[in-house]
Records
---
Amino acid sequence: MRSYVMFTALLLLCAARAADEPRTVLPGSVPAIPFPGHLTAQLAHSHNPDANIAVLELTLPPKTFGAPPHVHSREDEFFYVLEGTVHFLEREETVAAPAGTLMVLPRGHLHGFWNPTDEPARMLLMISPGEFAGFFDEVVARIKKENPDSPQKVGALLIEAAAKHDVQIHMDKVPEEARAFMK
């Protein structure tokens, strides 16, 4: 319980500093971005250069892949599991993260995630610096424009977009247990 209270305080501080003006983000008030593998809602963005953090809510349906193994060169990511259980690849290890888990994934470290369970999962994702949050909108816009007709073409589009943000995707590092959830 104490870690949840500490994380909530940190989240509130970061979200407040990430906005130019105070604001309230009510449930359902932010449109979801239909990112491949999970819905994404950007709750706070990095328009304030002093804060430079983004806060997103991710919803992973049951038995879905969230993100392939990848390495950020410029961003740190903090995932807090709100509901369900999410499996994370953290370097070479798979970690089952139930609700209440905080995953701290600094730049330069291989990570990915998926939901292997029969229940949906929800997470908060904080990204610092927050400019990377635009990646999600960019990918969805390209998918709508190019209308890829296979998972391989969607994957190629993701890899290309990630490379523009100095993120390296390592499909060869997908754990065997996660392969069944890739579509």
---
Amino acid sequence: MPEDPVLALIAHDGKKADLISFAHKHVDLLRRFRLVATGTTGQMLADELDLDVRRYHSGPLGGDVQIAARIVEGNVYAVVFFIDPLGKHPHEPDIQTLLRACNVHNVPIATNESTAKLLLQKTAVQDLLPPDE
């Protein structure tokens, strides 16, 4: 049986509550993915929703780059990255590396709730996932 696709979940501090709210609404679908996340976001998803999440470093400590490396290796199906466009991010070059990796390797990335909904509801995603048990 093929492995479940990998979905990366990331959120800036000002958008973590939005991502957790989004995850609550879609928890059953999220459980069908192998989830990876940056540090704090992954911990929140595990603690609040009991999701199995492989955690990388927090974004400012290199987590965005770690996930970008997985994208380059072809190991990530899609990324949900709730970006805070009004916040200051000292690790902006790392964020740009992640966005560039998605664009270069044709990996879908959703940067807000509207696009994340579309990403998860896409027919191709449903066909990719194993059937519900």
---
Amino acid sequence: MMNPLKRLRLLFVMMVLSGLAGCASQPPQPVQIERISPEQLAALVPPAQSILSLEEIVSMSKKGKTDTEIIEAIKQSQSRYSLTPSEVLSWHQKGISKGVLDYMQQANALAQQNAIADEINKREKARVEAETRLKRERDSARLRSMDPWFYGGPGYYGGPWGYRPYWGGGMGWRYW
């Protein structure tokens, strides 16, 4: 036979442990990152287009135009160049200055980054809109279920709490 104090202590320990078990929750889910595949990336990044040819840039350099004038001509023509390191070296040997070649590489990299950022922003906006819509639907359902005059359950006296029998005081009056 157990001592009543030991029983009380055991009961208290069991209540505390069951309370702690009831408070346990699932760990938060890690954030899902939607990756862009190489095929999607190739479709996103605009292809380099050169309206002002590299030969024209070489001739402008040989005519004595400064780097800023050549860069301004490239900006005006909205040309972009995708050059490999060996092509950069080759065009430098043909007469294009390092400053112009650096600008060409930076402008192409910036255009690629902007295209990727636009796609990421578009996806994030769609995700936020979907999340907002789901929250609105959840709140609407919550409010509907709290409305005592919302009869969505079985029978005339149904509702969010299910069927409630008629507890009247006679003459059709109903007490809640």
